[in-house]
Design goal:
This protein is mostly helical and 151 residues long. It has helices spanning 2-80, 91-96, 99-107. It has a domain at 1-84. It is 62% helix and 0% strand. The longest helix is centred in the N-terminal third of the chain and has 79 residues, at 2-80. It starts with a helix and ends in a 44-residue tail after the last helix. The model is unreliable at 138-151 (pLDDT under 50).
């Protein structure tokens, strides 16, 4: 009976040793997975920041485009609707400004050139936590002196 207890104890010791080896292997796998997840989180944070920057750039560009379209419309109104005859244009100047009439026809379709916003409310990724801190980001910031304003 004592020999059986010793054999059982030896079997238990071997099982315990295998289990410890598996535990170490799984700890290593977990560490690698967490490291990979951390790297992906950083990439995600950078990508989201880049998307935010691009959205702001797009909004500025669209605002500038709208401003220029208003200026073109004003020029069109002044040049094409001048009934007093105070503005004398040669045929060459009129042909050079012919794009204003084409712009009027195409401006109605300008709203269709925009891409539609992606609806990600049903996405499986929508529950990912999003940390808006920029602790790990190096941002390129321009001073207000460097910006060029065209009126």
């Amino acid at each position: 009976e004592f020999i059986q207890v010793v054999k059982d104890f030896e079997d238990f010791r071997k099982k315990y040793q295998r289990t410890n080896q598996e535990l170490e292997k799984f700890k290593d796998l977990l560490l690698k997975a967490e490291t990979g997840r951390s790297a992906l989180d950083v990439k995600l944070k950078h990508a989201r920041n880049q998307v935010d920057v691009e959205i702001k750039r797009r909004q500025r560009a669209e605002a500038e485009c709208a401003k220029l379209e208003q200026q073109i419309q004003l020029i069109r109104d002044i040049l094409m609707c001048d009934t007093s005859g105070s503005i004398q244009l040669s045929e060459e100047q009129k042909s050079a400004l012919a794009f204003l009439n084409r712009g009027q026809a195409s401006s109605g379709h300008a709203g269709n050139n925009r891409l539609s916003t992606i609806d990600e409310s049903g996405s499986i990724l929508s529950d990912i936590s999003f940390d808006k801190t920029d602790e790990s980001l190096d941002l390129c910031v321009t001073s207000p002196k460097e910006e060029i304003n065209i009126v």
